[in-house]
Amino acid sequence: MIKNETNVVKRIEAILEQEQQMLRNGDFSKFESFVAEKQNAFDALKNTTARISPEAARNLEKILARNRTLYEAAMEGMKAGSARISEIRQTIGGLKTYDNSGKIKSRKLSSPSISLKA
After folding, report:
1. CB burial class (10 A; 0-12, 13-18, 19+) of residue 45?
2. Is 26 left (phi over 0), alpha (psi -120 to 50) or beta?
3. What is the residue extent of each domain of the chain?
4. Please, which residues bridge with residue 105 across strands?
5. What is the spatial distance between Cα 76 and Cα 99, in angstroms, rounded to a whole number?
């Protein structure tokens, strides 16, 4: 691997390490800039003339797999949070039950008070 490829690989590794920190800290405000920066870095790697070393490729693969796992966990957490917020909103809106004929009947709560627990 020549020096230019080494610099590109190190740049990608640095971006992926920053991405890991962003994911671990839940700081998604930088998400779009990371996508663009990562794409540019991988484009630069694709446009290099020499091949990167197998060790560098394995290391990048390992870091990418780790970040992919973090993204998946973050998505699951956001889905769970969204579902919980939806449940809370439904509870605040009242109680839904079925009448004798099987139709949904809504009942408003006189004073909805919800205790939120972590």
Report:
1. middle
2. left
3. 3-84
4. 97
5. 36
For residues 23 and 74, the answer to whether their CB atoms sit within 8 Å is yes
Residue among 11, 5, 14, 17 nearest 53 (CA): 5
Q: Does residue 8 contact residue 48 with C-beta atoms inside 8 Å?
A: yes
d(CA 83, CA 88): 9
Task: Evaluate whether 31 touches 18 at the Cβ level (below 8 Å).
Answer: no
Residue type, 90: Q
- The token pair that represents 20 in the structure block: 């890991």
DSSP bridge pairs for 97: 105
What digits encode the pLDDT tens for the residues 14-56?
999 999 999 999 888 888 888 899 999 888 888 877 678 889 8
pTM, two decimal places: 0.69
